[in-house]
């Protein structure tokens, strides 16, 4: 039996959903428009959809995400956490008590909400909510890709004859093209990122450790108005006496940066739920001719990739090839070890990807990172990265600063 102490409803009308969260006013997003569009797409694919508290739900309804933990923090009924929506019914947000109370989500306005007490049965609550949708015995249920396996396992117990599809694939049709309002928010995330980098540069000095630099970046991102880094701030540093190492943070963070060494930054700010991704190269010590040549090469490669982002005129594969050709013709093809870039928005990496084999045609309003690099394990490396919007005449970078090689003496 469900306890009336913790299960309650906050009713809402369709117009009220536009005040779902405090971030709405600054982000200026029309959540009702997004929901209505999603419901139209959903009807052709499924009878109901479940979106956990993650990017899909943040995008669709403005239910905010928190800074993630490294380890999982469990609490009773966590698998129900998220929203149910059908093609014809308004969303219902289900929350365990701890998410509602201690997570601050219980104060959301304009959303129909039901809260599960620590001692109550989550399956009974979910069954009660889904009964109101009038589902058949073998419904088509769309589930976000980021839902937990525990959620799916419990839903299979409730609906053993259900057919499950990806809600993320359905919603991605909306998310891939960014509106002017969304681009404006991402532009602000870029401004925060560049302002943070400008202050990081003022603090750089030979003899710092790699950890000193990482900590300074993360501090400056928050100081300038970001929630924090949109992913783990990374450095890819190399020089004749400073070998490049991937994937060993505890081994590389204590290393002292002694000239000559190339410092390759990879970081970005979170702002109003949107994730920036930015990269620049700095020289500790006067760069030699080879270092400068590598730096100029990746800048020319990026320019070629940005120019190729012409709406409806190129595939992702062709954009990648345009930038890669510059590096390959100079003899550094094997040192460009990754795809040119990726879609980006409320997640750091989103489809589609600027890579060989992708026949996706770039369309106006898509956003990509353009991030060529040359990584040499025992010599000087270089990388650059900006978020770029696809336009008819070529890409529009949202950050344009720090184009020349910065040298720390």
Task: Give a verbal description of the structure.
The structure is a single chain. The chain has 409 residues and is α+β, with helices and mostly antiparallel strands. It has 2 domains: 14-175, Creatinase/prolidase N-terminal domain (Creatine Amidinohydrolase, Chain A, domain 1, 3-Layer(aba) Sandwich), CATH 3.40.350; 180-408, Creatinase/methionine aminopeptidase superfamily (Creatine Amidinohydrolase). Helices cover 33% and strands 17% of the residues. The chain contains 12 helices and 19 strands. The protein has helices at residues 23-27, 31-42, 55-61, 97-101, 122-131, 149-158, 167-175, 180-203, 210-223, 249-252, 289-308, 316-329; strands at residues 48-52, 82-85, 92-96, 112-116, 140-143, 163-166, 234-235, 261-266, 270-271, 274-275, 281-284, 341-343, 350-354, 367-370, 373-374, 382-383, 386-389, 396-397, 406-408. The strands form 6 sheets. It has a 6-stranded mixed β-sheet with strand order 4-3-2-1-5-6, with helices on both faces. A 4-stranded mixed β-sheet has the order 7-8-11-19, with no helix packed on it. Helix 2 packs across helix 7 (167-175). It is globular. Mean pLDDT is 92; it is low at 1-26.
């Amino acid at each position: 039996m469900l306890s009336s102490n913790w299960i309650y409803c906050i009713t809402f009308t369709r117009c009220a959903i536009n005040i779902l969260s405090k971030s709405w006013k600054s982000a200026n997003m029309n959540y009702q428009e997004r929901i209505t569009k999603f419901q139209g797409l959903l009807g052709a694919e499924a009878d109901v959809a479940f979106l956990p508290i993650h990017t899909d739900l943040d995008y669709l309804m403005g239910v905010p995400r928190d800074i993630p933990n490294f380890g999982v923090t469990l609490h009773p009924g966590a698998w129900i956490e998220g929203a149910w929506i059908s093609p014809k019914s308004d969303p219902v947000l289900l929350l365990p008590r701890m998410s509602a109370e201690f997570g601050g989500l219980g104060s959301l306005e304009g959303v129909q909400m039901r809260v599960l007490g620590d001692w109550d049965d989550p399956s009974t609550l979910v069954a009660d909510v889904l009964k109101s949708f009038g589902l058949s015995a073998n419904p088509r249920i769309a589930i976000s890709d980021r839902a937990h396996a525990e959620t799916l396992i419990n839903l299979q117990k409730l609906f053993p004859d259900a057919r499950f599809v990806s809600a993320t694939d359905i919603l991605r049709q909306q998310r891939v093209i960014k509106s002017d309002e969304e681009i404006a928010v991402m532009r602000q995330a870029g401004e925060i990122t560049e302002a943070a980098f400008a202050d990081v540069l003022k603090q750089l000095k030979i003899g710092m450790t790699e950890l000193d630099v990482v900590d300074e970046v993360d501090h400056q991102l928050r100081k300038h108005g970001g929630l924090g880094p949109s992913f783990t701030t990374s450095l890819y540093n190399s020089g004749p006496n400073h070998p490049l190492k991937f994937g060993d943070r505890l081994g590389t963070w204590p290393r002292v940066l002694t000239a000559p060494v190339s410092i390759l930054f990879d970081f970005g700010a979170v702002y109003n739920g949107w994730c920036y991704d930015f990269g620049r190269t700095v020289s500790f010590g006067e760069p030699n001719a080879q270092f400068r040549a590598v730096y100029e090469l990746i800048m020319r490669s990026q320019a070629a990739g940005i120019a190729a982002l012409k709406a409806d005129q190129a595939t992702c594969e062709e954009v990648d090839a345009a930038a890669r050709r510059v590096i390959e013709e100079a003899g550094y093809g094997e040192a460009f070890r990754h795809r040119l870039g990726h879609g980006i928005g409320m997640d750091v990496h989103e489809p589609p990807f600027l890579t060989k084999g992708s026949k996706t045609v770039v369309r106006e309003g898509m956003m990509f990172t353009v991030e060529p690099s040359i990584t040499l394990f025992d010599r000087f490396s270089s990388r650059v990265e900006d978020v770029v919007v696809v336009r008819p005449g070529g890409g529009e970078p949202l950050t344009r600063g720090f184009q020349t090689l910065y040298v720390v003496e």
